[in-house]
Amino acid sequence: MEIKTNILEKVNQWLTPTFDQETKDKVKDLMTSSPAELEDAFYKNLEFGTGGMRGIMGVGTNRINKYTLGKNTQGLSQYLKQSFPNEEIKVAIAYDCRHNSDTLAKVVADVFSANGIKVFLFEELRPTPELSFAVKYLNCHAGIVLTASHNPPEYNGYKVYWQDGGQLVPPQDQEIINLIDSLNYEDIKFEANESLIEYIGAEVDEAFAVSAIENASFDIPTEAKENLKIVFTSLHGTSIKSIPNVLAKAGYTNVNIVAEQAEPNGDFPTVKSPNPEEPEALTMALKLAEETNADIVIGTDPDSDRLGVAVRDNNGKMVLLNGNQTMVIMTAFLLEQWKRNNKLTGKEFIGSTIVSTPMMFNLADAYGVECKVGLTGFKWIAKMIKDFPELKFIGGGEESFGFMVGDAVRDKDAVASTLLVCEIAAIAKAAGSSLYKELENLYVDFGYFKEHLISITKKGIEGANEIKQIMTNLRENPVSELNGERVVFIEDYQSSKALNMDTKEYEDLKLPKSNVLIYYLADGSKICARPSGTEPKIKFYMSVNMPIENVEEIKDADAYLSDKIDNIIKDLNL
């Protein structure tokens, strides 16, 4: 295979004295042993997506390595200096259990310090939400966490947080990217100023735990907490550093931890994927739940921002709730608590995303609060909190198993969310109910909503082109009918236009541009297509709903809506 000229130019740059010998040797090896892999490693620069920058570790501009992250950090250092002249600039850095996360975190710390920036570096791996918390707690100007969330073991990543504890959003993200792109690799300052690097741990851990309990714990009898039987797994990730401690401090003594998955390990040896969205990931936890007759199973992803929850249904069988279900359960509970404590004034809001369940609007209407909706990713919910200081944020989430309780952490937070869902389960059990029954009651009150996600993986250059073509086809040949229902509205966030199919009139969309397409049907169904911002996937989100009068109608409603989803899938040729 002949190496293309434009790629060879990039490759040759990585063979100059700017790069260390080990890197140069690996590049040379790829040139002879795997030209196709070389092309994939250099055909583009690694980009920032919905959850920061993620990629496969290795040499090249399209890989996670000391040079790509070093260049990011050099650009960010210069941007911080421009943004905060005459201030002592401070940043916090955390990292997860992945291979090289600790060494890459030290590289990032070195570059910041070499640029005269004070660094607070966690002494060991820590959850992503703790980094978000630490940025504000330590009065930092920015924060970095080295993580690839639930991606496969060969991945790592780099998330950037700002002063408010939220991830970067426009226009700052593009300004920083432009600055990074203007740099050469020889501009990176790798020589650390060790006097500017301070290691942190226990003090921030304690403050983080106290904050989680303040936000997610309620006035529940001790006996109710002790009676709740919990199984918890960290899936080899960082939550083992926080969740058992927070649960214990909050009064939960009946916690069984999956021992085989409690040891942090970047290979994630006991699961195919360390993603609590995947039922297989919770297999060992569900087995332990049967052995211990547990009421609830909770599993978190490697950086502890997502949580999967399984509970017993009305027949005593453990079932995994989806992200939309856990989101509405937690949101409804928070709204009810705020109402009971006379804290609702009409100046509050809950947060969600354009691909999540529309049931959130029904909850907001019932409690007289606003439901603000943003693009996919919690950085948009964090931005809502910053943009509307006159409103109080109660909580919010997205369908991909993330939730945020209050505003102490400005990212999805599996630590506080785990405590919150245990509180709900403990109260329900003490009242002779269950988390599952509470969800059924919500469906009676607010409508039965059923969501389904189809995720199609397309790897490499060809895969990226295929995904691009799928989105192009959907735009150029818009669907007019699905499951016999008319498409009444199409939102295209790439063009920032919404088309009313009846009047053929366009409206402007107010959210930032994004490669997302949403179809709304006459019966209230919603279908969304978007390429993932963090993985080589295209995702199709489907939401259908119908009113029900009582819980006895749920079985028939579920079958009816399942058929509707199946027909939509067939019509879309998925």
CATH secondary-structure class of the largest domain: Alpha Beta
Report the count of strand segments: 24
Query: Can you identify the CATH superfamily of the largest domain?
Result: Alpha-D-Glucose-1,6-Bisphosphate, subunit A, domain 3
Q: Can you count the helices? A: 18
Q: What is the overall silhouette?
A: globular
Could you tell me the strand content as a percent range?
Answer: 15-25%
Q: For the terminal residues, how far apart are their CA atoms?
A: 34 Å
Biggest pleated sheet: 8 strands, antiparallel
Which residues form runs of ≥5 with pLDDT under 50? none
Overall radius of gyration = 24 Å
Helix/strand class: alpha/beta
Characterization of this structure:
The protein is of the alpha/beta class and 574 residues long. The chain contains 18 helices and 24 strands. Strands 17, 18, 19, 20, 21, 22, 23 and 24 form an eight-stranded antiparallel beta sheet that branches. A seven-stranded mixed beta sheet has the order 1-2-6-5-3-4-7, sandwiched between helices. It has a five-stranded mixed beta sheet with strand order 9-8-10-11-12, sandwiched between helices. α8 (202-216) packs across α15. The longest helix has 18 residues, at 66-83. The radius of gyration is 24 Å and the shape is globular.
